[in-house]
């Protein structure tokens, strides 16, 4: 995960908890998003993004018996530049271990889960978008339903993965849906930039939300920054609070 520029002092003025349009988003069921028997593919720019984007949806799809494939594009090792505690070498191993624990907390079937790790470099995905598109396309097949970050989410890696995933899905004959992450933390004045007509709400019960929150806290490396060297938490308090909402939103 990469931290956007979020000011805790503007919490009340962000789209996620102030936009009136949120109350009017149509509800969609998982059976409408992913047809019976279809495989769901979740493409995460960094380890942990699969939980932040759709940790609830993953639980619902797993409970309904859908085959799941995860693609982690990077290993997330560049999240703490200059840190001695969280060096790139340590994070290249630790972040994947955090993801294993997070997915276990979601209750996903680890024995049958297909999980691809791309090994691309953090903060440089926009420079390798064509290569990334070709990489993703190799793991998709006709009839898949693909979920990834919104191509206008406002974070370079998220945007690049969203665009590459959309192009790869087209090449493979798969269906593609986008999920915004950091866009919900834009100031309320930017609400018009959200494609509300494409938004659909997936309702989550309290247990699903609790498991998702518990899974997010498996990312110990991302919960605390290092103020001494100017590194903010990759999972700031406001993001953790938003993730306790009883729904997730996808753009269809």
Automatic annotation (TrEMBL):
One molecular function GO term is: hydrolase activity, acting on carbon-nitrogen (but not peptide) bonds, in linear amides
Q: Which Gene3D superfamilies match?
A: LmbE-like
The domain of life for this entry's organism is Bacteria
According to UniProt, the name of this protein is: N-acetylglucosaminyl deacetylase, LmbE family
Organism from which the protein derives: Pseudomonas moorei
């Amino acid at each position: 995960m990469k931290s956007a520029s979020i000011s805790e002092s503007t919490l009340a003025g962000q789209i996620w908890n102030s936009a009136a349009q949120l109350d009017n988003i149509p509800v969609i069921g998982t059976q409408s998003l992913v047809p019976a028997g279809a495989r769901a593919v979740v493409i995460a720019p960094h380890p942990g993004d699969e939980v932040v984007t759709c940790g609830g949806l993953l639980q619902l799809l797993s409970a309904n018996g859908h085959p799941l494939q995860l693609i982690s594009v990077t290993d997330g090792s560049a999240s703490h530049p200059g840190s001695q505690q969280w060096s790139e070498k340590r994070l290249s191993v630790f972040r994947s271990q955090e993801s294993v624990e997070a997915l276990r907390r979601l209750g996903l079937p680890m024995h049958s889960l297909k999980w691809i790790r791309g090994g691309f470099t953090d903060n440089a995905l926009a420079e390798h978008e064509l290569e990334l598109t070709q990489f993703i396309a190799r793991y998709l097949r006709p009839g898949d339903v693909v979920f990834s970050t919104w191509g206008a989410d406002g974070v370079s890696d998220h945007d690049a993965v969203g665009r590459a995933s959309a192009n790869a899905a087209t090449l493979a004959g798969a269906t593609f849906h986008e999920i915004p992450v950091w866009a919900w933390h834009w100031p309320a004045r930017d609400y018009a930039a959200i494609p509300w007509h494409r938004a659909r709400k997936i309702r989550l019960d309290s247990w699903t939300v609790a498991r998702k929150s518990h899974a997010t806290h498996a990312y110990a490396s991302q919960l605390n920054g290092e103020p001494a060297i100017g590194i903010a938490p990759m999972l700031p308090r406001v993001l953790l609070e938003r993730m306790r909402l009883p729904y997730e939103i996808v753009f269809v």
